[in-house]
Amino acid sequence: MGPVPRIASASDQGAEAPLAGATPTPPAEHVVGTSGYGPGAGTALQILRQLDSGPRGLTEAQAADRLADSGENILLARQAASWPQLLLRSLHDPFTAVLLCLGLVSAAVFAWSTACVILLLVAVSCVLRASGEYQADRSMAGLRELVATTSTVVRRADKEVPPTVREIPVAELVPGDIIKLGAGDLVPADVRLLRASGLTVHQAALTGESAPVAKSAGDIPSPDGSTVFGQPQWCFQGSGVASGSATAVVVETGARTRLAAAQGTTARQREASAFDRSVHGISWILIRFMLLTPPLVLMANAALRDRGLETLPFAVAVAVGLTPEMLPVVVTNCLARGASRLARIHGVIVKRLPALHDLGAVDVLCLDKTGTLTQDRPVVAQGLDADGQDDPGVLAWAAVNSWWTLQLADLPEPDSLDEAILDAADEDALVAHDGVAALPFDPVRRLSTAVVRIPGLLGRHTLVVKGAVEAVLERCVLEEDERRRLSALAAGAAEDGLRVLAVGTAERPARTRDYTLADERGLTFIGFVTFHDALAPTAAAALAALAERGVTIKILTGDHPGTAARACRDLGIPLGPDGVLTADRVDALTHTELTELARRTPVFARCTPEDKARISAALRTGGHTVGFLGDGVNDLPALRAADVGIAPRDAADVARESADVVLAEKDLTAVDHAIGAGRYSSGNVATYLRITLSSNVGNVIAMLAAGLLLPFLPMLPAQVLVQNLCFDTVQLAFAYDRPHPSVLRRPTVLSPRDVLRFITGFGVLNAVADLATFAVLALAPHGPGTGDDEAIFHSGWFTENLLTQALVMVLLRAGRRLFEGRSIDPIGWSAAALAVVGLVLPPSPLGPALGLTTLPIEYYLLLTAVLALYATGLVVARARYERHLSGRPADP
Known about the structure:
- The protein is built from 29 helices and 22 strands.
- Among the domains are: about 10-75 and about 145-250, Calcium-transporting ATPase, cytoplasmic transduction domain A (Distorted Sandwich); about 275-350 and about 675-885, Calcium-transporting ATPase, transmembrane domain (Up-down Bundle), CATH 1.20.1110; about 375-535, Calcium-transporting ATPase, cytoplasmic domain N (3-Layer(aba) Sandwich), CATH 3.40.1110.10.
- Strand 12 and strand 13 form a beta hairpin.
- Helices cover about 45% and strands about 15% of the residues.
- The protein is an alpha/beta fold.
- The longest helix is centred in the C-terminal third of the chain and has 42 residues, at about 670-710.
- Helix 9 runs parallel beside helix 25, helix 20 (about 590-600) crosses helix 21 and helix 26 packs antiparallel against helix 27.
């Protein structure tokens, strides 16, 4: 058997292939058109002929040949990186590059201990990061689910045997297979309907529409401009049957489906995230300092002290002292611990570790309303009479229709609107009538009819008709002006975000013959039943929690603007006069204009996938860190355009694969937990960076000044490295710190400019304390002029450096106050250990090996005064810095 004839799809010609206007159907030996599914793709009979199939299905031999030719009906999952690949990828980090350069320089000047320590730090950091991302990939592999597991197919053993209906694995479906669909089934491939009865399909994962879409098998041409997903004859992989049943022929499977094509269009390079940009900026600031510092040290000592290359090890040690060597370890440990805690407690999986920091920086969260702000089901708002006034009787008649249609038409389950009506109705009213017959809902006529017998009304039957407003009104006995008035009343309710059904009744003489569609006429109008989307139980509390964290919500939805506005009003989201805009406004705007409009507009309705991506990109251009919560194929461009893509576990496979963060459920509370964890981790990283860099900058300034003032090196290279090693070791405590709640109330952004301002200000203050220490050493009895000048100076400054760094660790944590809390936290214990080392090491037996010696008691008394003044200066400077931050104007 030759290659299987098939229907051409968008995947044949790339993502931009047009979806409508196909050429007339060619002969059976050719593929159908060149523009994919849509008008002109052929009638059901023509497509069956092109696929060499028929209503009796394929034979097993045909199916086996086609399976070998077209491959299994599976989507290609993203290939997870191996642990060695992740390890190599972790080397592509600016700070890791800085440390490797320092290690090479240290080795070049034969400072082997320094080189070994640096390389050890690089190895630990890379292993931690690779392990964290590998664990996230393993967790994701456990979440991956097939679009469907089995499908009901019609096949024959051979051409002479009658067909049988049986279940087969979805992976074994091939083009030309005839399949059966029923309520609750997932559509296993791209199919063309052959027969359908009351079929409605959820295709929100593909289009974003929250309501089920009616489908039919007829060859009626679709309206001009209708997209491929709007064609009633076609159903696509990734959608699910809401109600009704159907028989369909499989047209495309596996990598040739629309779902697979959409997955392919997202395989582009992700832009640098907020975390990547901030780390890159700070890294280059450090690199510039490091490249500048050693030459300055060498030139100054050569010019003023006539010391040349013998100061090179000291210059390298100064450069090492400027660098936060533990940053990769602290960052990776913070992120890995935060990601592990989220997965263990809240079921949130962070697939890419830096995305956790991006979550902490999120200040704008874009989302669709369905499933997050509202549930994917309607609830009854009220019943309205012909004057638009509340009338419970209308709801009672609607409930009679829903109940007896469900009972007498043998439907598998009520649709969402009938279920909402039955939930809101009085149960006694349902059994007050006797059911006679029912005509179930039909997407073509858009009505359902129940025939009931009212107790006490002998010889009469009552028809209760419920359905679309236009369909019911045209069957009611009404004056034309009254019909227009009622239509306008229903339209007003729809503009207000409500879904509307009309209810009418008619009396007929009792009879035994069947009721038909012709009986649905001459109705008396009863009223309207209105619905709104049920609010998500946790939405209001989650919105309040996100607002406290400074996160602005932007709703990007494909629904009607009135529906979106109604959900916002029900949840208390303030909307101004232009609070809801339709996406057709977006198309005519430049990127700059859209950036300004997106900043002040909370709701965009009727959004296409491209609109969502443009709005997310415009918000990023405006300086915001953007998170996007989506679950459908239509959300893929926006998931990629945002700083952080977030998807629930039950999202479409391609959306889940493209996301950076996967939630156990589509719940804003889980997003709040994830943002909190991100700020927890990023707050610790930011605190570490500010404290470490400000202390390091102060020490470098003091070393440069001392190198010019003293006739000897202010500190030996070994002493610098031991001091750095002590400080680096205790800095691991920052990964285990618990930030103050105030840190979690606003996004944490590592702005290079802000970090530079902080470390410069507090670094100068630290340098002043060091210079004061020089004065103390000059006034001490064993100061300059004695034989122990160099050892006394080195020991005194060594002790002062560790004590001041311990003070900085305790006093510069954001939001903390001195002696806050009843117990000492990890930072307190670490600072205390650092102070003990600074006091004990010089007089210990290890002191002489490092060139240190015992200090006179007078030095400690004077040092206490210096430290007291330094601590006071730190407290005052921090208070001014926090007032400066609190006085900044907030982003509108």
